[in-house]
Amino acid sequence: MSILCHIAISEGRIKRSSLETLSHARHIAKKNNMEVSAVIIDVKAGNYVPEVKKFGVSKIYTIESPLFEHHINSPLIEALIKVINLEKPKVMTFASTESIKDVLGAVGSRTKAGVIPDVASFDLQNGTIHAQRPIMASKFLADTESNADLVLVSVRSGSYDVQESPGDAEVIKVDFDFDENNIRQKIREIISTSGDKIDLSEAQIVVAAGRGVKDEEGKKLIMELSEVLGAAIGASRSVVETGMFSPSTQIGQTGKVVSPQLYLAVGISGAIQHTSGMVNSRIIVAINKDPEAPIFDIANYGLVGDLYKILPLLIGQIKSAKNK
Amino acid sequence: MKFYACIKQVPDLAGPMRVKDNELIQDSDRLMLNAYDASAVEEALVITEKHGGDVEVVLVGLEKAKETARKALAMGASKGTMITIDDGLNLDSAGYAEILAAFFKGAEFDVIVCGKQSQDTDAGLTGSMLAHKLQIPYASNAVGLDVDEASGMVIVKRQGDIGQEIIELPAPCLVTCSNDMNDPRIPTLKGIMQSKRKPFDAIDVKTLGLESSDLNSFIKTKVTGYRNTPGRKPGIKMEGEPEDIVKQLVDLLDNEAKVL
Amino acid sequence: MEEEKFDCIIVGGGVAGLSAALTLAKANVKFLLIERGEFSGSKNVSGGVLWGNDLDRLVPGYWKSDEGYERFINHRRLTFMDDEASFSVDFKSRHFNTTPYRGIIVLRAKFDNWLAGKVQEAIEKSNYPEESFIANSILVEDVLIKDSRAVGIKADGDEFHSDMVVLAEGVNNLLTRKIGLQEKYVPVDYVATGVKEIIQFDQKVLEDRFQLDGLSGMSNEFIGYASRGIEGGGFLYTNRDSISLGLVLGMKDLRKKGKKPQDILNDFKEHPVIKDIIKGGELAEYSAHVVSTGDIRAMPKKIYMDGLLIAGEAANLLLNSGKAIQGMDYAMRSGILAAETVLKAKENDDYSSQMLKNYHIALEESFVMKDMRKFQSAVQFLHSEDMFETVPKIVCDFGKDFFTIENQPTLKSSSMLRKAVRKHSSYWKMLKLAYKGGRAL
Ligand SMILES: Cc1cc2nc3c(=O)[nH]c(=O)nc-3n(C[C@H](O)[C@H](O)[C@H](O)COP(=O)(O)OP(=O)(O)OC[C@H]3O[C@@H](n4cnc5c(N)ncnc54)[C@H](O)[C@@H]3O)c2cc1C
Ligand SMILES: Cc1cc2nc3c(=O)[nH]c(=O)nc-3n(C[C@H](O)[C@H](O)[C@H](O)COP(=O)(O)OP(=O)(O)OC[C@H]3O[C@@H](n4cnc5c(N)ncnc54)[C@H](O)[C@@H]3O)c2cc1C
Ligand SMILES: Nc1ncnc2c1ncn2[C@@H]1O[C@H](COP(=O)(O)O)[C@@H](O)[C@H]1O
Known about the structure:
By secondary structure, chain A is an alpha/beta fold. In chain A, 28% of the residues lie in helices and 29% in strands. Chain C is of the alpha+beta class.
């Protein structure tokens, strides 16, 4: 019996959230004296083996194919099914990325598995997976369980710490003979949003703009602030709607879930659909001119005032604070 | 083109709700159309208004879900089908997908649109589960949708991890929609009036050849209880001269939070 | 689409509108009820007591299921307060337990939605299951007037025609003013602000604290400190597992004294007596809403015209006599009477004001107008400074002397009273007040 962990690769790096999940899976496996194995699916899956070895897994499956250049769901599903059939795990874990959200249901359906998506925590007790899922825009947590023969669990980023545990793993290259003609969907183009160099969902610091950021001048201030902080840029839905910020930066129920060390909410009111994507940030700073704005209820530090006055000062001060 | 929108009735998140001894209590019986489904319906309507065709909606739920189906008809969908199930069987996404699959096995369609997720469960599984059961290609988390008149291909712009992917799918296919794709229309009084005269079937799930026993066997996960999300306590709120409060903040970030 | 005409269009899905609608649906009338909120009740903050048993006429045996209401009243309390004490008149009786109840506590967000459900059921049973309906999320922009007769309404830029229009739009009766049946600006003397909090408890705790049994409930009105020298008073109603705690405060006085209702409510909650009552409770919801004072001078010039009737608080039908706020029961009865008048008009195919005057007459003959007239002086009385300032202080001072027992000669209660009166007022004034009060109530 084993727990199989999918290792997500993005922009030539292993997603931290995969390692968070892997680290936790290892604890659970120990408790239930099971083994942990991992699978890497990428154009150059092999490159990531050494890194994954640091996490005390017993087997590492690698599936390499040019097909994984860009995310397309059908080949990814086939690849996942293939390792599942090889490994026959009791549990398979994933980092809850958009790519995984895209395929999780299909894989679950194919394997008749119990699927528990987007959990904040999970555990395995005598054959049953017990998980806590944020639901209703994270208003509540639902205790969810499944005792299916195979359970697929995807985990929200930031739910667990990354802990290495050296060990030597057997590496299994899985050959992937997938006929491209079976792909019934074709990628026309990829609009990769330049600018956000730092992967938002993994960023340690996030500067998030809301509708309070009304114009290019405001956007410039956000950019500068994120520069000096080395932060990724996030946004609320209403400001994405204005077209000023790319949809990829949206944080919340519809958008991404982030849990950085520092989250600066600038001109964001704090609707639950937004906060559901960032409440787990360690430190939340809110800048809002409305003292009643709900965002202040969850902010460690709240600044009541006009962002156009505050940001320039803040940028200056942080610069000098960093220089000393 | 023939569109089907799968719509779900969900509790109004803005309405009073709370947890009481493990149960989720909705203080007012406010139920509404899942926001993501509203976007799916809207998009299907826009496309059929542009390229021709029509939009039907299908809903699995209890008797009271009828009003939600009506709302979609009031928006402009041409026909509604409601598949009624017994109260008390706690279906998960897999369960709903099975029922919908059984329905679509007997339906003619080009595109099925779903919401990317249910506002209440935030699961986001039913769409791709259904697509697999129907053996049709699909794309999820669409923020844009159109049909290429010439090739008859369905063009989906989906939000991926980094950037957006523009994908071509042959019909029949399934697309799950993000609410970022549009602002669903609010039914007009005329629309509401017409909705009552539109064809509306209410069929029992049994007529799809599914007995409660089967349904139970589809359910792979169950919710054993609910709890409040551990809340954050409000921290320091600083008001006053920008200069002062910014100084204060930077000091706190630097020395207290140590995040600089 | 072919232009279809309704027998009646009802504007407003509150208690008045829904009561009218239910009456019409049962009588097989083709009607349209329009509510601007996404749900009936979603625009309504009042959690309160629906007095009387008209509801049993509309929904016979409603009390057999516990769906619509929170609790029934079998315990009432009227409390006078000064800044440290409270002196209550407390009444509990078995006779309240017999159904149909004399008063039920409701949460409007829930109750209105439930009642709307009953209307929907009635529509489906009626001869017009497809032609009559309730439309939500629609704002009525105008009443269509054709040679001084109401002929329908305007919404979404479209016109919708009907033989009758019933305005049940509530206290913010913009349409009523638009068509000139009421002055554009109602003097602030005639309006008050209601603020309310819902405070959540563990059901067991709540039932023990208020000695509730099953679905029994209590209503408590407060006079004196509650409003902190602002004209008005406070109320407390027990729901299933929460309480509605709030104040109704004179708008004019608030402005004059420059106070915020929410601050006064917070002080109220800090009062030692209230503090003990709400101990351990959690604030679940805060809301504020305008409410009429029940001053008859605030009523529209006329509540009917050719093709149109006004029901509920849109017609300022409400009585706040200090012992209870009666708005929903007035709304319900006036809604029913309006509908019955519509039926009569339809029978005779006569929608003239002569015919519709019957509504006015019926209302005058009902408890609604009879009480409003009878208790006007009570309303004035309640809003007199003596009533919300002096009297409570006197009563509480008297209470302090009367109930305090120390090891020293005790005064006769008569002299205690004299002492208390002299401290805050004059005998003569109090005699006059007592006389006035006696006549008013
Ligand atoms: C199903 C569903 C899913 C959703 N998903 C998401 C999601 O994923 N992400 C998301 O963000 N939203 C989401 N929303 C929308 C969400 O409900 C809110 O509408 C949105 O988050 C509001 O964004 P905002 O706070 O930027 O805008 P607003 O609510 O308009 O707030 C703007 C704030 O800026 C402040 N402000 C204005 N000017 C200034 C100034 N000069 N200086 C300082 N402060 C200023 C104002 O006081 C105000 O508080 C979703 C909604 C639904 C129904
Ligand atoms: C804090 C507070 C406490 C109260 N407590 C009590 C109590 O304990 N007992 C009691 O009997 N009364 C109480 N009342 C009074 C009671 O709430 C009202 O008198 C009663 O709701 C009046 O009912 P109505 O149907 O006339 O108006 P409403 O209930 O206000 O309904 C009017 C409806 O019309 C809709 N509407 C308005 N304009 C339009 C338009 N143009 N188009 C479409 N829809 C429109 C509104 O959205 C609203 O839903 C209280 C009031 C307040 C504020
Ligand atoms: N009971 C249902 N009836 C119709 N469609 C449904 C139902 N449940 C889920 N769906 C569809 O699946 C989507 C969400 O899937 P999920 O988040 O897994 O519940 C919804 O937006 C609908 O399109």
